[in-house]
Amino acid sequence: MRIPDNSFIRSVCALTQSPLALTSANYSAGQSCLDVNEFQYLHKSLAAIFDGGPLGNSEESRLGSTVADLSEPQSYRIIRPGSALEFVESTLMSYGLTKIR
What we know:
Blueprint: H1 7-15, H2 40-43, E1 67-69, E2 75-80, H3 85-94, E3 98-99
Parallel strand pairs: 2-3
Antiparallel strand pairs: 1-2
């Protein structure tokens, strides 16, 4: 689940019941996109494209989302470290979750 920190895209999410391709629009394990032109190969499969401009230009911007597995009670496991790793881990720990290695 992703909760974007952007009021426009949250409004779009509230209006649709369809999947959304966001900043991680790419094939699995592919490089995260920072610009809509970087995932042109997916455009023909999409119903709409909203271009809010480039998302950054550093390699850190390409790290993508941090993904955590929360399927075990009171614990978490990092599946994919991303650009918000420290924030995600500190937030999960603040709720008393323990990291599984």
